[in-house]
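Troubleshooting log. The previous structure file for this entry was overwritten by mistake, so regenerating from the original sequence record. Sequence copied from the archived sheet and checked twice against the printout by T.R.
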Amino acid sequence: MRVLGMISGTSHDGIDVALVDFTLTGDTLRGAVAHTASTPYPAELRKRLAAALPPAATSLAEVCELDTLIGQEFAAAAAASVEAAGPVDLIVSHGQTVYHWVSGGEALGTLQIGQPAWVAERTGVPVLSDVRIRDITAGGHGAPLVSYLDGLLLAGLGGTPAALNLGGIANMTVLRGPSDLYAYDIGPANALIDAVVAARGLHPAGYDEDGRIAASGTVDQRLLDVLLEDPYYRLAPPKSTGKEHFHGDYPARAVASAGVEVSSADLVATLTELTVRTVARDVLAAGVDTLVASGGGCRNPVLMDGLRAALPGVRVLPSDEFGAPADDKEAIAFALIGWCTAHGLPGSAPAGTGARAPRVLGSLTPGAGPLTLPTPLAAPPKALTLSTP
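Regenerated output below.
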């Protein structure tokens, strides 16, 4: 079954896609990653999206328009992938998270926009969307859903491996045994760095390319101490967070609270060190011996060198070595969720999200013809192997 996974993450910079051809052999699911791509949002659309995100006030009219415009961008990205790599049986469109409602440590709701009907109409292919909310209704956080893929992908490593995703938010899945895992959002990875870079016009792409800005700055210890005191870090897993908490105004408020004056380079350096410290602290506390990293933060040498220096006894590897390119792992994860839903199987790991039990995820929008699903499977796969061309 050929499934196209699509997502725009908390960095809201564009759409990542991954086409995976899944084949089940015994209790092992094999996924051939046939195509990957990344499509930036048009500059004006990204600007409008950023302006509507918390803590900004917005209107239902703006939400409706963004829902359509982002849906059309997802449709164009899907059509381009189908044209480049051939037909698919199912498209999974995660869309763009614009609000993740957490109160008192409990996730109460989540909103992803990017109307899937535009994708179905453009491609003629059925679309699975709204994949997080069912886990939340079962008492989970709806995140990190990638923990389901992590559990399958790292099952044969032995020891205490963990998967780390460095997107806008850093999340980690820790395996304590073949079927024993936990996962949660650690805190910001790129979200605060990107916010400063964009707000101060430090780079036209809105991120710290190759960590150059951080490398030119010096960590401000007083500011770092204030940042590390955020109560979120003391919450026990499962937990989730996003730009509702670590939003664009957060760095300026921290600077004011610390009572310091910092240059742009020093602020970026300090925020990068914040990610290093919070991630390293949790990795060490979990007794992890192998850390498999993915996400845009893997392309930041200041961040990765900092993690390796802070984790001298831990083997740090890119997810590429497991068949999941670091930039595409989340899109692959949503393709996997689509395969599971199509076969009547849960696509979540309750130990990772905090849900009462696993759930079949998402809502289906029919394509051009009747909605026909494969014969349901009686049991989920026990392992996953991924390969790239």
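DSSP finds 13 helices and 13 strands in the chain. Archived copy saved in two places this time.
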